Predict the structure.
Amino acid sequence: MRQVQLWFGLLARLVLGGVLLLAGYLKFDELDKSQMAVRAYEMLPVPLANFIGIVLPFFEIGMGLLLILGAGIRYSAALSALLMVVFVIGISQAWARGLSIDCGCFGGGGQVAPGTANYLTPLLRDTGLLALGIYLFRYPQSKFALDKTPQSAALEKGI
Amino acid sequence: MSTKPKPGKDNFTRNLVIGVVVGVILIMLVPTLISKQTDTSAKIPASVSAERGYGVVFNGELTGVPVIDVYEDFQCPVCAQFEAAQGDYLESLIAEKKATVVFHTLSFIGTESVLAANAAACSADEDKFLALHKMLYQTQPKENSGAWTNESLVAAGNSVGITSDSYEKCVNTGQYAGWVNNVAAAAAQEDVNSTPTVFINGKELKRGNEYYDRALFKAAVERG
């Protein structure tokens, strides 16, 4: 049973980390578009949205790498889960307000023709990734991780 | 997973990896953030107005006429549709001095958009902006297919009658690359989230048929 958990931990790391890494990679050489994607959610003041649009791809790449390598799993999983919460809120409010935008999750983004926006797919995907992030935060033990002592340090203190 | 390894020593590799990943990300992020700022010292063509979002301005001196701001990307297929539908009308407004028209050449689709926008700025110095503008949209290749290079953009300029050495030099040296960045930064501040986006007298024209129907667009311009 313990072995299954370790392998599942690895799978969760690779899926969550892989998706983040891919999402960051696809955005980071088209930052104008990334800024556009964040602005289109109409949640933040424009200058802040523009700042986030640049920072986000770098943050995603960083979290993705750390998760895949298995370094600081609890922290990177917690931050990734938090990011997914933000994404879920962002997409939900866009949907609820009837904005016509592309999610911009993997590059692209901005306004789209009315009626062509698809919110359900990214919402389901991000919810699933959120679950993986929470799982990894709670059970960071996994195969092939650089965290040699995930169970010793923080966990044994009962956190 | 049975013995309890000594903390500290065992986590050296892990801490090193975290340090390297975070460090490299920050080292890449900071210059990127700086490069996205407006560079007021960048060279700009004579017909460009920093006050008008670094756009290429036609009839800027007129008063009491509609002001039309067009945000576009030379590689954007929908912009080519917009140009096909409204390009002649905009040119006639410019020629008859019935409107101030400002073109904002964005470059979010990729490096070939940057090259094209730079070439367009170079053509503005030769008074051939509108001709090259039309020509680039008429011959628009697939996005980032490698078709637009400095060489092909010089050739495109030649085909609309730009023969000067200064144009060739301007294209080849990317003379207005800093300006291209400024146009993008200004549009980001204006909250332009799609191309083409048209503002008439500062008011965004709602995405819809007005963009592609001459009569509807004309009516929108005349409404102001």
Summary: The two ends of chain A are 22 Å apart (CA to CA). The beta strands of chain A are 101-102, 110-111. Chain A has five helices and two strands.
